[in-house]
Amino acid sequence: MPSTSESLLSVVPVVPVVVIDDLAHAVPVARALVAGGLPVIELTLRTPVALDAIAAIAAEVPEILVGAGTIVTPGQVKRAADSGAQFLVSPGSTPTLLGAMGDSGLPFLPGTATVSEALAVLEAGHTEMKFFPAEASGGAAYLKSIASPLPAARFCPTGGITAASAPSYLALPNVGCVGGSWLTPADALATGDWDRVRALAAEAAALG
C-alpha cells in the first residue's frame, strides 16, 4: 500500500472511479479490475451502499488498493477510514477538509480546478492532487499550460476522460495517472458482465 499520496499517482495509469448501487457488485467488480491488471479502485461515496462496498472489498479482495472518492466532509473521512479505505479523494479542497484528510494518516488526493486552488494545496504542503472536473475545466490543454508556473504540482485528472482522451493527459509531465469511470459501465455492472470490465481494465492498464 502506498504510504504517501505521491505514490498513489504511480500505481496504475488509470484509476477506476466506480459507483456501486448494488452491494453484491462490489467484490466481483474489484476482482475483475485486478484480473485486468488494475489493482486500484476508487469507490465514490455517492450511494447508500458505498461504505459497505469499501468494507467488503477491503475484506475479500486484499490484492486491490481500495479508496473512497467524493469525500466532502471531515465526517466522511472518518467513516471511510473506519470502513477500510486505504486512500481518499476529494472533488475539491477546503482548509478543514485538507486537515481532516491529513489527520487520517491515509494517502489522499485533494481536488483542485484552478491555479489558486492548486496553490492553496501546495501551500498546505501537498504536491499531489486531483484535477476535477477535468474536461469541463480545460482538459489536457489547461494542465499543460500550468505545468511551467506550478512545477511542483502533479495531478490525477478525473471527470469526462475517456479511453480515447486519456493518452493526451498521460503524456503530460505533471500528470501521474487519470481517473476513469468508463472502465465500469453501469450496464456491465447491472448485468454482471465482469469479462467486459476485465477487458476494459486490461486496455487501460496498457496505457501505462
Q: How would you describe the overall organization of this protein?
A:
With 208 residues, the chain is of the alpha/beta class. 40% of the residues lie in helices and 16% in strands. It has a six-stranded parallel β-sheet with strand order 5-4-3-2-1-9. Helix 2 (26-35) crosses helix 10. The longest helix has 12 residues, at 194-205.
Q: Output mean pLDDT.
A: 96
From the alpha carbons, calculate the radius of gyration and give it in angstroms: 16 Å
Helix and strand pattern: HEHEHEHEHEEHEHEHEHH
Q: How many strands, which pairing sense, and closed or not: the largest β-sheet? A: 6 strands, parallel
- Strand percentage lies at 15-25%
Strands across the major sheet, in which order?
A: 5-4-3-2-1-9
Q: Overall 3D geometry?
A: globular
Structural class of the helices, strands and pairings? Answer: alpha/beta
Distance between the termini: 19 Å
Helix content: 40-55%
* Strand elements, count: 9
Low-confidence stretches: none
Number of helices: 10
In a few lines, what is going on in this structure?
The chain is an alpha/beta fold. Strand 7, helix 7 (139-146) and strand 8 (154-157) form a beta-alpha-beta unit.
